[in-house]
Write a structure and sequence with these properties.
This protein is of the alpha+beta class. It has ten helices and eight strands. Strands 1, 2, 3, 4, 5, 6, 7 and 8 form an eight-stranded mixed β-sheet that branches. α1 packs antiparallel against α3 and α5 packs antiparallel against α6. The longest helix is centred in the N-terminal third of the chain and has 21 residues. The protein is globular and about 70 Å long. It starts with a helix and ends in a 13-residue tail after the last helix. About 25% of the residues are buried.
Length: about 280
């Protein structure tokens, strides 16, 4: 059932109960209404009305997975896929992201949906790098799974392409099923960058680079011609995180720095990040 249909049913139930208040009595009516209203409130929190937000979008897609498992039965593929996403989903969530949806052997993740943070783009890029590192080490886990399932060792390796873009999106229900998702040019460009990224790499849009410059070692790419864009798109290959000492001390509008008045002691203190200490 989509969310609009469920909202309508709940509102109809509230109206029906109110009309029977004289028969049921206030106590019984209020008790029944309380449960329905709690569900309605939960639904509104989980699926708010359409809204525009600034988010960082991450698209990731496996390379080599389909060919590797094409000879396996569905249950074996399902177990391997679950083991893989258990690890990758954990990384996304622990880096402050939320998983919008899985699409076969790909995932769409978002930063800045429930609550926006200045460093959302940074943590999205850190998550992407951590996902690539996790996948590079998944070969050992894959051998354990094939032994457990009594399968012939699988040939090849699983790798991933990841694309990220930061910008405005529209959040709301999409399609006849009422699926809650994001739409907009930011989403489309992140998907195109994922398609274009080299296997095993993280490719970010210029909008994301503007937010994380100085934090990561990046390599500017030749402007890309992507579907849906008239002008070539500038993108950057993320090679890794810089040491803390090389982090940019300013954020916000590029080229503009505002001095901090009366904050010398604090500014000379530790620059350690505290938002996600497990992955600092």
């Amino acid at each position: 059932m989509n969310t609009n249909a469920e909202r309508e049913q709940l509102e109809q139930a509230i109206t029906a109960l109110e009309t029977q208040r004289a028969t049921l009595g206030d106590a019984a009516t209020d008790a029944a209404l309380a449960g329905i209203r709690r569900r309605l409130q939960a639904l509104e929190r989980a699926y708010p009305e359409r809204q525009r937000k600034q988010v960082t979008v991450l698209f990731a897609d496996m390379s080599g997975f389909t060919a590797m498992v094409e000879s396996l039965d569905a249950e074996a593929v399902h177990e391997i896929m679950n083991a893989l996403w258990d690890r990758l989903d954990y990384i996304i969530v622990e880096h402050g992201g939320s998983i919008d949806k899985h699409m076969g052997d790909g995932v769409l993740a978002l930063w800045g949906v429930a609550a926006a943070h200045e460093d959302d783009p940074e943590w999205a890029v850190r998550a992407a790098l951590a996902m690539q590192a996790e996948l590079a080490g998944f070969d050992v886990r894959l051998r354990e799974l094939t032994d457990k399932l009594h399968l012939t060792p699988l040939g090849g390796v699983i790798r991933m392409r990841i694309g990220l873009c930061t910008g405005p999106v529209l959040l709301g229900e999409v399609g006849a099923t009422g699926e809650f998702s994001v739409i907009g040019d930011t989403v489309n460009l992140a998907s195109r960058l994922q398609d274009t990224a080299p296997v095993g790499a993280v490719l970010i849009a210029h909008s994301t680079y503007n937010q994380v410059r100085g934090i990561f070692d990046v390599q500017a790419q030749t402007p890309l011609h992507v579907k849906g864009k008239i002008e070539p798109v500038q993108a950057y290959l993320v090679q890794g995180a810089k040491p803390r000492a090389f982090r940019m001390r300013t954020r916000g509008v590029e080229g503009i720095e505002t001095s901090m008045v009366g904050r010398n002691a604090e500014m000379q203190g530790s620059q350690q990040l505290t938002r996600h200490p497990n992955f600092a």
